Inverse folding.
């Protein structure tokens, strides 16, 4: 786990200029391009990090977890032919649509217990975004190795 954390921090530092609150990435590119030698260094270390990630996934898959299910909608970016990270259509389990079609279906409301906090619902129901939603909606675009670990 520490090897992966350190590897991730190293990538962010090389690409972003520092590991916390990166400075160099900008919309459309970089304020300063990453050093090519350091990029090659990352590539050399990537196979060891990938192996560590697979081993960590195997470790967590062997643990016993309490039975827990929560009904919710997953919402994530999606593209028709690749794993979406940066742009694409807004996808749910049932449909994919442009942001202009999707946003009117989101209702924001304030939480009574905390007037400063806002919540949102999709068509009147709670929804989940983030890494787990992206995986659940776009797992068919994972590499074969990532698919086998994901299962």
């Amino acid at each position: 786990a520490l090897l992966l954390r350190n590897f991730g921090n190293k990538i962010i530092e090389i690409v972003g200029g520092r590991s916390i609150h990166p400075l160099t990435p900008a919309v459309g590119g970089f304020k300063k391009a990453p050093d090519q030698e350091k990029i090659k260094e990352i590539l050399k270390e990537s196979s060891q990090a990938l192996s560590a990630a697979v081993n960590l996934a195997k470790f967590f898959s062997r643990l016993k977890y309490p039975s827990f299910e929560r009904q919710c909608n997953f919402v994530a970016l999606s593209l028709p032919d690749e794993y979406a990270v940066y742009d694409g259509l807004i996808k749910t389990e049932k449909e994919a649509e442009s942001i202009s079609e999707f946003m009117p279906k989101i209702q924001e409301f304030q939480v009574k217990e905390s007037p400063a906090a806002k919540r949102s619902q999709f068509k009147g129901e709670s929804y989940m975004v983030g890494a787990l939603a992206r995986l659940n909606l776009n797992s068919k675009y994972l590499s074969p190795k990532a698919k086998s670990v994901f299962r």
